[in-house]
Design goal:
Elements: E1 2-5, H1 12-19, E2 32-36, H2 52-68, E3 80-86, H3 96-110, E4 123-129, E5 132-138, H4 152-167, H5 185-194, H6 200-212, H7 218-227, E6 231-236, E7 242-248, E8 262-263, H8 264-267, H9 273-283, H10 301-321, H11 324-344, H12 347-360, H13 376-388, H14 395-422, H15 425-458, H16 462-475, H17 480-484, H18 489-501, H19 506-515, H20 525-536, E9 576-577, E10 580-581
Antiparallel strand pairs: 1-3, 2-4, 3-5, 4-5, 6-7, 7-8, 9-10
Amino acid sequence: MIPRVHKRGSHTFGLLNYLYGKGTHEEHVDPHLVAAWDSFAPDPGRDPGHDPQATKRQLQRLLDQPVQALTESRRPAKHVWHLSVRAAPDDPILSDEQWGEIARRMVAATGIAPVGDESGCRWAAVRHADDHIHIVATLVREDGRRPRLNNDAKRSQAEARLIEAEYGLKQLSTGDGTAAQRPTSAERHKAQRQGRERTAREELRESVRRAVTGARSEEEFFGRLAAAGLLIRKREAPSGDLLGYKVALPDDRNKDGEPVFYPGARLAPDLSLPRIRERWSADSDQILSTDIPGSTSPNSPSAARRQTATAAWVAIGVVEHGDDAVAAAYIAAAGEVLDALAKTSAAHTRSELRSAAFAFERASRSHVRAVRGHDRALRQAARDLAHGGPALGRGEDGATTAMVIDMLFFLITAAAHWHAKKGHAQQAEAATRAAEHLRNAYQPAAAQPLGVLYQRGRRLGRPVLQRQTVLLHEALPRLAEQILAEPGWYALAATIAEAEAAGHDPAALLTDAVERRELDTADSVSDVLVWRLRRTAGLPADASALPGKGTTDGRPATRKAATRPSAPGRRRSGEETPGKSR
């Protein structure tokens, strides 16, 4: 159940006219009163034999009586209070009696008409659709005093949680004030008329987030906005200093044909110019010991993805064990990485990656203020992804995409756990949804490169496989039997053989890969170890690029992608993640 306190107004009749009207798109069906301060209050929607317009005037005069009883100098300028209460999409349809009781509870909880207080404000609740009501009240009590409405929005949210539990409705999370502003109903209807999947506000928020990703200066940021085709207005002080900005879609216009501009802060709290500048100022800080020193920026999609996987690997540990302010910075930077990856990945993974970035946007902000600068390695990774350009869905590009998605899945899951421990319910749920989209993107990304490795592993000689089995039992005694029973074991065996041929100690690689990050909840431990070993040992992610003579049994390795009998990818089961049970 979603209560929303709207901006206060000055015209009671105007709001009643809207609530009892047909709506902007004929969406108001059978508007009628379900409750009011007085059981004899007139209902313009259902009072038979009366002129609805005259009855609305009558209801307006009754609501406004306490206001008009005051001298003009004492009347509040904005005396109209408006609260809408909407059921969740999956909730059952409630009766008028149930909605009436919900309205009474809301006006009592917010301070409009406390229980047992006969001098409370006058109010009326109108239902014009199955799933919601609107409550209109006038902000002068019967005794001439003003109501106490401190934190009315938070109190309505708290009451909604109680109502959900008592009525058996979907349990929603209470907001903490860090969420981006939701599109208004007018914006949603406008998007439907224009045939847009999302509102202009949502499209602009995604475009601005992408422009911020990895940017290091105002010039670069505004250049990216212009390149994306957005209209830009800058707000300057008399001195010429830049104070803020607004953006608009070229084809989103108001009734006068003018572009509809949105300030950055109205798109999301962290997209205001001062908050964006915090990222740029931190880029000049010295990299701390927890960051990854990079020599040069990768100039190819695959190199950028491999570097991003390394940065994500380090970030997991920081989110799990670091200071809260530093962890918050890494989580925010992870959002930039998701944006950059979604923008530059191949078509067969782009949709799920874009959904992951869109979902994680809510998880990138909380009341824990991020200390920027520590996140420089992740922000550099996002920048490298953007500058590396579009990746192919095959070869090293495709394989490193699977590698980085695997690493990001664990980073985003760590962020979900961090938020859950802090009591950030909405952020934890958003991170969990983002992780599910990453899981879905991983499957098509990993199928081809793991299929090649599987076939290579199947062709390893029996003595080699026996030796690797012994190695596995010695290095990972607790996980060995599980790994050997997985289809992905052959892909891991091929990877171990390559690492050994390249001069690495496979036992040390395996031990390090397991000890530094948990694996108990992975359905396919072997898949996860494949990517961790290939990244650590510097092996090509795409094994089909290796020469055929690299196989130990002397037979040439196939260069054709083959599918394993069961290729579950990296699945995680049996783990309780915040907001959802897998």
